[in-house]
Amino acid sequence: MKIIVNADDMGYTKGVSEGIVEGYKKGVISSTTVMCNMPYAEKVPELLKECEGLGTGVHLTLTCGRPLTKPVTLTDKNGKFLKYREFYARRVDAKEVYEEFRMQIEKFIDLFHCLPTHMDSHQGVHDSVSILLEEHPEWKENHNVQEIYEVSLKLAGEYKLPVRRACRYQWINGYHGKNATSDKFIELLEENQGKDLELMVHPGYCDLELYTKSSYNTERLRELAGLCDPKVLEYIKERRIQLVHF
Known about the structure:
The chain is of the alpha/beta class. The protein has 10 helices and 7 strands. Strands 1, 2, 3, 4, 5, 6 and 7 form a 7-stranded parallel β-sheet that branches. Helix 1 (14-26) packs parallel to helix 9 (219-227) and helix 4 packs parallel to helix 6. It is globular.
């Protein structure tokens, strides 16, 4: 059994990024994805020099921070990306999505001097797998879900990258919030024995920047603690589960 434990949001803030590194060194994190439009992304290549075995992909972003291009339909009056709810409640320009995603991939290549290991996205913007759309299915009529997904797959083909939820690794999303405990992590593995999995996680340290930017802040510490719990490490070792990346 092979599992990828992917820590989303590398580069979001200093605290989040350093927490992910801690989870790689002392826990079960085997992969991460970088938000290349965020200011701290510039510091990430130096931070990850000590993490040679950590798979590093690109975390495509349309709902956090500022774009790397100059889109019209993706931004508010201040030039920032639309908030999560606003993005999913409207139709956006797929050409603008393509150019922005492409620029974020190119930024990754400029920073790391290599291709990312894979593609995924912040708040599911690449394929619209989102809690918000589960709560508001009627929004899918206004948001161009399929068109954006096709853009994502086109770019994946052009750069020859695996994509979350469109590859051989089954995506698991049960380790979050109050469910981010070592027992829950083991339970998820038990429920999916024998399968090759990608477990999406959001660990990190809660610095002031994160606390003021995101409602999901101190919960990241809970996630980190569970991922570094010796009980989890022992479970994986005993069952000879392979921690891998894309």
